[in-house]
Design brief:
This protein has 92 residues and is α+β, with helices and mostly antiparallel strands. The protein has one domain. It is 38% helix and 14% strand. α2 runs antiparallel to α3. The longest helix is centred in the middle third of the chain and has 17 residues. The two termini are 25 Å apart.
């Protein structure tokens, strides 16, 4: 789960899930109210891809729809990003 770099507190799953649908590149920490930039954790995304795709593979053997894969993807997606104090696009 994402953790605020300023105060060190971890966001809840519900807060993390809502953040994904913001159109801004940053959010305000719900605890310390400081600006936090959303940073994609590429390692987590690579590790989560097999988990999301596994229901589609299982579908070959039992009746499991693509809808189940989408639900699993949404449930684990809050684990795929981090929060940073600095804007990731300005860093070299």
């Amino acid at each position: 789960m994402p953790t605020c770099e300023s105060c060190g507190l971890q966001l809840t799953w519900k807060q993390s899930f809502r953040i994904q649908f913001h159109f801004h590149k940053y959010i305000q920490c719900p605890y310390c109210k400081k600006k936090q930039y959303i940073y994609n954790n590429k390692k987590a995304i690579i590790l989560l891809l097999p988990l999301i795709a596994s229901p589609l593979i299982v579908n070959l053997f039992i009746d499991f729809t693509a809808f189940g894969s989408i639900i699993i993807g949404l449930l684990v997606s809050p684990f795929s990003y981090k929060l940073k104090n600095n804007c990731p696009s300005l860093q070299k």
